Amino acid sequence: MAADRSVLPDPAFWRNKRVLLTGHTGFKGSWAALWLTKLGAKVTGFALPPDTDPSLFDLAKVGDEITSIIGDLRDRSMVESVVARAQPQIVLHLAAQPIVRRAIAEPVDTISTNVLGTAMVLDALRAVEGLEAVLVVTSDKVYANDDQGLAFGEQDALGGKDPYSASKAAAELITRAFAKSYFEKNGVKVATARGGNVIGGGDYAMDRIVPDIVRAATRGEKLVLRMPQATRPWQHVLDCLCGYFVYAQQLVEGHDTLPRALNFGPKAAQHLTVGTIAETMLRSLTGEARWEHVPLDGNIEMTTLAVDSSKARQMLGWSDRLTGDRLLEWTTSWYRGIGQDADARDITLQQIDRYTDL
User: Fold this and answer.
1) Mean pLDDT, to the nearest integer, of 81-91?
2) In the chain, what is the straight-line distance between the N-terminal and C-terminal CA atoms, in Å?
3) If we measure between CA atoms, which residue out of 282, 290, 279, 285 comes closest to residue 337?
4) Whole-model pTM?
5) How far apart are alpha carbons 29 and 15 in whole angstroms?
């Protein structure tokens, strides 16, 4: 399958930019830190310690070439100190509690991190001179999902039937309020990015499909799926980050007609079921697809989820390059390399290079 032509982040723009990246110890944040460093940005990362063992942050030595600060978004004095030290021109706010089932078990902690943490960051940024743009990453789950399978557009109502989704919808409202009340009058562009379900090498979280597949394959166990029929807007981490970087870049470059919220996800025809991902990756990793369906009593997760990313495609020139078989091939090859004792940093940087060369 040929890759769509897609705009890429411009190294000339990012070179020597002071970037504050929250959540840099997480899966997506670690990829972001490595790519931004390759682009020449001066990155300050702020996050809690990695919450998985292993973690991409540790395996790929992400903290070696950036300023890495470990702390809690909800600590006002800590956030203010980090912002004052970084004096960012661009902020990419990725830090969050991202696991839906953990949010169901720990709703108050999730809401505190995802809502109050976002407000803390935005409040501290009000004092920064030279700030150009803030991009707050939320989720494809911010919409009021009636489980009818329709793709949500940016104009659709926000909602959330579970604590994670509600926390991200609330973060959207908080971001909009800060933008209107403080930032817009000072010429600072503030926007939100609603990314689809991101997969790729280096994810070791609990209760996410790819790490669950890899753990089952590594241990020789049968994979347990709670919703094999479910569909999600799966996209590779590099496609998603490409969208974020290009969005922030174009906000700074003065594209005043850009919406202040954009979806990033695959076209609806490219959606895969959980079962299809499991079958394909298990056969690639082990030669067979051993899994069973064990429904979860009282599960409130949606069966279908889709977002319409046509605005990002039309207005940014962004497009997902890693779709279908290629999406799963790149993801599986990363873990296979780790299983063969390859260096995680090398594999990750090589995939970034391959991506930009497509």
Assistant:
1) 98
2) 12
3) 285
4) 0.95
5) 19
Q: Which of 338, 334, 43, 16 is closest to 199 using CA atoms? A: 334
CB atoms within 10 A of CB 162: 18
Q: Tokens in use for 16?
A: 């020597």
Work out the angle at residue 214's Cα, subtended by the Cα atoms of residues 65 and 305, and round it to the nearest 5 degrees.
Answer: 90
Give the tokens for residue 295: 């429904």
Distance of alpha carbon 241 from its chain centroid, rounded? Answer: 7
Give me the domains of the chain, ranges plus CATH numbers. 14-357 (3.40.50.720)
The answer to which of 224-233, 265-274, 298-307 has the lowest mean pLDDT is 298-307
- Cβ atoms 32, 24 nearer than 8 A: yes
Cβ–Cβ under 8 Å, residues 227 and 274:
yes
CA 290 to chain centre: 29
Distance CA 232, CA 268 (A): 9
Q: Is 109 exposed, middle or buried (0-12, 13-18, 19+ CB in 10 A)?
A: middle
Do 33 and 105 form a contact (C-beta atoms < 8 A)? no
Given a cut of 60, whether residue 3 has pLDDT beyond it is no
Signed CA dihedral, 145, 151, 154, 155: sign only = negative
Determine the pLDDT at residue 304: 82
Amino acid in the structure at residue 318: W
Encode 116-181 in three state secondary structure. HHHHHHHHHHCCCCCCCEEEEECCHHHECCCCCCCCECCCCCECCCCHHHHHHHHHHHHHHHHHHH
